[in-house]
């Protein structure tokens, strides 16, 4: 019996004797010379088609479970543990690149905010991490430069929530921790 005949018989649980006598793939008789061949050929072809469909469904399911699309504009609301609230816009671009832009009422005293470079990476089970440098306004005259690190999960394809950490670059102060919620801008 040929390799194809062997795989056809084992794939459908047929005995080897049945596969040799009744298979189109048997070496001793071509299919066209036997009676009833179109029905058997249809059975083998439809069986192979069903098997192929089952394999495709099983293999494509994990591919569909990937993280939702991160690229786009996100409005991010931050709530630090000390009660401080901040807002920013995150523009996520392809290849893990992006920009942060502070959206803070205190910036009206300083002039418009300037975008800063950010990066993002997808994680396991719908999680994502994004980070970048920011300068929060501090009172009337100061700025608090540091790095924001967001670790969150997609609740829906258009919302992310999780934890945030702000590590100041100036001084010997500890990091600030809190939570965030990001919603895709329309």
Describe the structure.
The protein is 24% helix and 41% strand. The protein contains three helices and eight strands. Strands 1-2-3-4-5-6-7-8 form an eight-stranded antiparallel beta barrel. A hairpin with a 4-residue loop joins strand 4 and strand 5 (127-138). Helix 1 (3-11) packs across helix 2.
Topology:
Elements: H1 3-11, H2 16-22, H3 37-64, E1 72-80, E2 85-92, E3 97-102, E4 116-122, E5 127-138, E6 142-156, E7 159-168, E8 176-184
Antiparallel strand pairs: 1-2, 1-8, 2-3, 3-4, 4-5, 5-6, 6-7, 7-8
Helix pairs in contact: 1-2
Distance between the amino and carboxyl termini:
63 Å
Count of the separate structural domains? 2
Series of secondary-structure elements, N-terminal to C-terminal: HHHEEEEEEEE
So what's the overall shape?
elongated
Going by CATH, what is the homologous superfamily of the largest domain?
Answer: Quinohemoprotein amine dehydrogenase alpha subunit, domain 2
Count the DSSP helices: 3
In CATH, the topology of the largest domain is named Lipocalin
Helix content bin: 10-25%
CATH arch. level architecture of the largest domain: Beta Barrel
Mean pLDDT over the full residue set: 77
Provide the descriptors you would attach to this structure in a database record:
elongated; Lipocalin; alpha+beta; 186 residues; eight-stranded antiparallel β-barrel
Short description:
Mean pLDDT is 77; it is low at 5-12, 14-26 and 60-64.
